[in-house]
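re: that chain from earlier
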Amino acid sequence: MYKFAASITKELRLLLRDKVGLMIMFAMPVLLVLLITSIQISAFELVNNSKVKVLLCNKDKGKGSQEFLSYLNEVGRFDLINVDLTEDDRRVGDYMNDHDAFVALYIPEGFSDQITKKAEFTAGKALVEFGINESPDTLKMVKVDSLTIYFHPVLQQSLRRSIQGALKSVIQLVESKSMLNALYFSINGKPMPATFEKELFANQIGIEEKTTSHNGSRTIPNAAQHNVPAWTIFAMFFMVISLGGNIVKEKLSGSFVRLKIMPTNFIVGLLAKQLLYLMVAMSQVVVIFSMGVWLFPHIGLPALNIPHDWIALIVVSFICGLSAISYALCIGVYAKTQEQANGFGAISVVILATIGGILVPSFAMPKAFQFYMNLSPLHWCLEAYYGLFLEGGRLADIMTSVVPLLASIVALQLIAIIGLKKKNLI
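^ sequence. v structure.
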């Protein structure tokens, strides 16, 4: 026991001397969690909550365009700014820059008349199919001119499609309302009463948003639930710079050879090294999770909601820490210089984080990367944490992620031991 305690003391002193490694393991992930979560929240607010400035040029003064703009205001996503321009005006970009707008909308003249005529054609066609109207020859199809939308080049494709979808929904509503009015007039010979029209469009089917979970919770996960576990895993695996570098330094200095001739087992020193860094990994979890729970609400970010199953959270954190330690051990054993351990270790962690779903969401990856994603231990760490944080699961619910993670730990440990034996270090 004394030898084990002495080994831990030695490893602790080496760790405390590594100021750069400590900064990378603690300061870097704290900054990443703060920055990425803040940026993601700002992006979500831009897409979901903030109003989009739209320059509006309405050349039509009819009822159809007025209803279109009225419904557009009810959507609540657009801040309409009236300007005067032509459809082929080359100064649209200048107008948009002057008003700090990303979208411009041009409604052509005669838009309302075309909507009305199209509605009358559709209503007449329906009456012919119903056998009420027997004069189909008088029906004439009318082509409605398209609305012209100008987008600023910096606007992302996802936001463009969201704006187009909202505009198409409003246009469909105006067309449906005009068609129902034309159909009512054709049958009854008088305009549709305002009260009846209001009843028809008031009773619309709503959409209730729910989130699937193992415990039946209806809490919608926030950006903290996604980012805090992800960057905690990233921080754990970046201990490869400190742990891997220390192993290479001990190999080059002859420490491993001296340990072999001392009256102790080399495995004791190896276990002490892993135990100390496991404590470091758990400290990272405590620091970053505590920041998400207590600091985030004070700086305007959503608070991290800790899972109800504390035992599962502790077990998963231990396993993720062991996985990071095993990977760092492999890098340290096979690297020939400290520069190789630091360079390859850092780059490989970034690559594994990318294909593992930390830097890029797994659902956004092409199908060709699905196989490689399963090879990344960071992917299984992330899936295990997500099963607890996002789905409210327990340890039994995330075993499909824990088992591959345990298998990777065993494989990495065996690879490291084989490397030590080949180098005659054990």
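Residues 157-188 form the longest helix (32 residues).
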